[in-house]
Amino acid sequence: MAVITEASLRAMHKSGIPNPFLVEKGDKITPAAADFLKGRGIQVKQVDQHQQPSTNQAAEAVREIPLGVSNRHVHLSQEDVEKLFGAGHQLTPMRDLSQPGQFACQETVTIVGPKGSIHGVRILGPARGATQVEISRTDGFAVGVHAPVRMSGDIEGTPGMVLVTAKGTVVMDKGVIVAKSHVHMSPADAEQYQVKDGDTLILATQSDRPIIYPDVVVRVHPQFALDFHVDTDEGNAANLKTGDRVKVIGKNGQFYSG
C-alpha cells in the first residue's frame, strides 16, 4: 500500500504527471492530493488487478532498502582534530558504521551556538578534508543555528558554530548543515535499481505512521553499501528505527506503475 500526498505529486511536475493517474488496490490518496489532481483535470484510475505488470514493473514494485537513522554528529579535518585533542592525535574507532571504512569515534565534542550548547556530540571518522557538523532542525532551534538542508560536503554559504573539548576550541565560519535524505549505493546496487549518481528515488515507509519521501538523492560509489539515511527528526516523524526497510515506489519524480 502506498500513500499518495500532494508533496509527492508536486515532485513529479518536472517530468509530468500521467493522465490517467494509476493507483493500485489499497493505495491511499490524501484529500489534498485528490484536489491537486482534480484541479489539473487528471483522472485517477485503479490498475486492473488481472493485468500482469511487465518484468521490470514487478521487480520495481517489491524493492526495499534498509534504513539508518543518523543522530547529530561531527566530521573533522585532521587540522581540527589536532586543535581539539592535541598535536598528532588520531581519531579512535569505537564501532563500525554501515558504510565500509566509516566508524564512530570514542571522541566527542560540545557544539556551541548563539542560544545554547549540546554536549557529547559523537565524532565520525576517518578525518575529512573539511570540518562539517550535521544536526537536525530541532537541534538547530536548541542552539540557535539555522542550518540549511544540504548534501554532505556542500557547505558553502552555511552557518558556523564553535566546537569545544577539554583540550581546545575550533571556531567554524561555515559547515553546519541539516543533511538531505539520501541513499548510498554501490555501482552494482545502482545497476540493479536502474539509477545513476544524482538520480532521485521516491520511497515509502512501511511503519504505522506512513510517509512518502519524494526526492531522495542517490549517491553511488564503489565503497558504499546500500542504505537510506534520515536524521532523527525524519525518523521520529515516521516512527522509524535503524534496520527498518522502506519501499521504492518510483524514481526521478515518476511513480512506478503496475
From TrEMBL:
Pfam family membership, one: PTAC
Record bears the keyword Zinc: yes
EC number of the protein: 2.3.1.222
Gene Ontology MF terms in the entry: acyltransferase activity, transferring groups other than amino-acyl groups; metal ion binding
Catalytic reaction(s) noted: propanoyl-CoA + phosphate = propanoyl phosphate + CoA
Cofactor entry: Zn(2+)
Keywords linked to the UniProt accession: Acyltransferase, Metal-binding, Transferase, Zinc
Segments crossing the lipid bilayer: none
Domain of life of the organism encoding this protein: Bacteria
Family that this chain belongs to: Belongs to the PduL family.
Protein name, as recorded: Phosphate propanoyltransferase
Organism: Brevibacillus formosus
